[in-house]
Fold this sequence. Notes:
Blueprint: H1 4-14, E1 15-22, E2 25-29, H2 35-38, E3 44-51, H3 55-65, H4 69-77, E4 83-87, E5 90-101, E6 104-115, E7 118-125, H5 131-139, H6 148-181, H7 188-220, H8 231-293, H9 309-331
Parallel strand pairs: 3-7
Antiparallel strand pairs: 1-2, 1-3, 4-5, 5-6, 6-7
Amino acid sequence: MFSLDDERSKAMTSLVDSRCYRDGKRIGDIPIADIGxxxxxxxxxxxxxxxxxxxxxxxxxxxxxxxxxxxxxxAHHAHQRPKIxxxxxxxxxxxxxxxxxxxxxxxxETHLFVGxxxxxxxxxxxSSSFAQVLQRCEDGTRGxxxxxxxxxxxxxxxxxxxxxxxxxxxxQDFDAIExxxxxxxxDRLVIERLYALKRNLLELRNAALPLAEISAELMRxxxxxxxxxxxxxxxxxxxxxxxxxxxxxxxxxxxxxxMQVNLALVANNQNEVxxxxxxxxAILAIPTVIFSLYGMNFEWMPELKWxxxxxxxxxxxxxxxxxxxxxxxxxxxx
Length: 334
């Protein structure tokens, strides 16, 4: 059994930030125990940031904000698909985050609880802190007076912006292997890199596309949480993500086309090899036929007793080979 001190200690290990605002102005940090009383004050908005909290912390958050049991369960176990769900007077949003770590893409997960006077962010895995996002909102003069709706926009926009460096890295990876793709030889390593890049693009697309759908729903619905004047901001996120997905789809098409061209070049090179082998086979067929005839050891054969028979046979063989070679050379077979 945990004591009260144990619960507070566990909560502090996962608590990133806890800020309280009144009429758009930050009035200071607030402990979790005082959140329930603070959000009952008119014009008060609380933003709480958590990173991989345990069940004890989430239960205390649930009691403070009155969050739904199913949403808390999803936030605890993570590994959820991107989605948006409405629970009475609050929203539960799941986002996939992506960021570069040593030129490798690391994916994380962010869960957001949004209410009329609170915003709770729960981060799992690879995800940058949102404290800098809220700080930019505080430094501005028009954001936070709009309440948690604008803070939600700022976080969604931050997640969408972090997709762009990943796409840029994928473009560099494609440029690095593009030269090898268009060689007329089969390279297993290049094909493996190509498939890995296509898989990474698909994974990023699956992470980014739901963000556009979530933004679209926030534009149309939930007017009690998202004021009408904020809809243009979410439309901007939707446009941003749609362009990003279009860029990803275009790159995937380029990869597919490049692979098809590579296979076509390899097949064409193989055809050239087969043509040359067939041409030389036709040339070698002439001496093979002539010499095999004179190797049958019959007593009565034409020109066996003729002194010029051997030189003549060699000359005819050479002439036939040269004639066939010149014809094949003109046809491009040798």
